[in-house]
Design a protein that fits this description.
Shape: globular
Number of helices: 12
Structural class: alpha+beta
CATH topology of the largest domain: Alpha-Beta Plaits
Helix content: 40-55%
Number of strands: 10
Strand order of the largest sheet: 5-2-4-3-10-7-9-8
Largest sheet: 8 strands, antiparallel
CATH class of the largest domain: Alpha Beta
Order of helices and strands: HHHEHEHEEHEHHHEEHEEHEH
Strand content: 25-35%
Radius of gyration: 19 Å
Distance between the termini: 38 Å
CATH superfamily of the largest domain: Lrp/AsnC effector binding domain/regulation of amino acid metabolism (RAM) domain
Number of domains: 4
C-alpha cells in the first residue's frame, strides 16, 4: 500500500460503489491505473469484500464499538468465540492483548446482554462500550421489499452493475438506480468494504484521543482530517462518551507511525493513547442474516 491506495481504501470505505472513473478523478490517476490498483488490493487480500448492509438509521438500532484489555490466553480463540455472537461483525486484535469489537444491536434493550457476553467471553474486566454517533432521525425512511431485495443481492458484492442487479431482482436498471439513490440520500444503506492490510510494511494504529473539556469535537475532527490526510482512514465519536475520538490511521513504516503519535502529542489534547493493530476478523451478523431472509 501507499498513500494513493489509502485514498482508494478510504473512499471505498465510504462508498464501495464508487466507479473507477470517480476514483480516478479523486486521485488524478487514469481509470486503468485505478482499476489495476483496486484489483491488486483485492488480489493480495487487503480488500476482502465489497459489502452493503442496511444502516442502523433504517433499522433503528445501535452501532457499538467496544474495547479493552483482555486476559485470555488465546486471542485467536476468543476472536472466534466473540464472532459467534449474532450482533458482532468485527473483532480486531491490537498490541498488548487489546481488543476492539464492532457490533450492531437491534435496540438499547440488547446492550446489557451484549455487555455481559462481551465481558465474560473476552475477559475484559471493564470494557469501554461506545455508541457510535450516527445522524438522529425521528422518522427515518423505511426500506421497501424491493430495497431489501436489492441489498440482498449486493450484500457481499456491492459493486454489481445496475443491469445485473435488475436481472437478479426482476426490475429495470432505471428502477434500481432510483432505489439506490433514494437509499443513499436517506442514509438507509451503508456501502463499504471489509479490508485488512496484508503487507508487513503497513502499520495501522488507532489513536484514542481525549479532548479537554469544552473542545469542539466537530472542528477537531475536521482539523485531523486536513492535517493528517495522508494517514487518517476515519475517525469515530461516541454519543455516550463526550470529549473522546478514535482516530484510525495507516502508515507505511513504524517510523511514520511514530511521527503521527509525536505530532498528535503537540496538539494540546488531554491525552493520546496509541494501539497498534495486528489483525482483524470480519463476521456475518444478524443484519446479514436479515437480508438473506428477505
Amino acid at each position: 500500500m501507499d498513500e494513493i491506495d489509502l485514498i482508494i481504501i478510504r473512499k471505498l470505505s465510504e462508498n464501495s460503489r464508487l466507479t473507477f472513473r470517480e476514483l480516478a478523478e479523486i486521485t488524478s490517476l487514469s481509470v486503468s491505473s485505478i482499476h489495476k490498483r483496486v484489483q491488486a488490493l483485492v488480489d493480495d487480500g487487503t480488500i476482502n469484500a465489497f459489502i452493503v448492509r442496511p444502516t442502523m438509521i433504517s433499522l433503528k438500532g445501535l452501532w457499538v464499538m467496544a474495547s479493552g484489555n483482555s486476559s485470555v490466553k488465546s486471542m485467536d480463540l476468543v476472536s472466534q468465540e466473540l464472532g459467534n455472537h449474532e450482533s458482532i461483525y468485527l473483532v480486531t486484535i491490537a498490541s498488548g492483548k487489546f481488543l476492539y469489537i464492532g457490533a450492531y444491536l437491534r435496540d438499547i434493550s440488547e446492550l446489557q446482554e451484549f455487555t455481559s457476553f462481551l465481558t465474560k467471553t473476552s475477559q475484559i474486566s471493564d470494557p469501554t462500550i461506545g455508541i457510535i454517533n450516527i445522524p438522529y432521525i425521528t422518522t427515518p425512511e423505511k426500506l421497501s421489499s424491493i430495497d431489501y431485495k436489492i441489498l440482498k443481492t449486493l450484500n457481499r458484492d456491492s459493486r454489481k452493475t445496475l443491469t445485473d442487479i435488475g436481472e437478479d431482482v426482476g426490475i429495470s436498471a432505471k428502477t434500481v438506480r432510483r432505489r439506490l439513490d433514494r437509499m443513499i440520500e436517506n442514509g438507509l444503506a451503508f456501502f463499504t468494504i471489509e479490508w485488512t492490510p496484508k503487507s508487513e510494511n503497513n502499520f495501522v494504529t488507532i489513536f484514542h484521543i481525549y479532548l479537554n473539556e469544552g473542545t469542539d469535537v466537530n472542528s477537531t475532527i475536521q482539523h485531523i482530517y486536513k492535517k493528517y490526510a495522508q494517514n487518517v482512514v476515519y475517525c469515530l465519536t461516541f454519543s455516550n462518551i463526550p470529549n473522546y475520538i478514535t482516530m484510525h490511521t495507516w502508515a507505511k513504516s513504524s517510523i511514520s507511525a511514530q511521527k503521527i503519535q509525536e505530532e498528535l502529542q503537540t496538539e494540546g489534547f488531554k491525552d493520546v493513547i496509541p494501539r497498534i493493530i495486528l489483525y482483524g476478523t470480519h463476521f456475518d451478523c444478524w443484519v446479514d442474516q436479515l437480508l438473506r431472509s428477505k
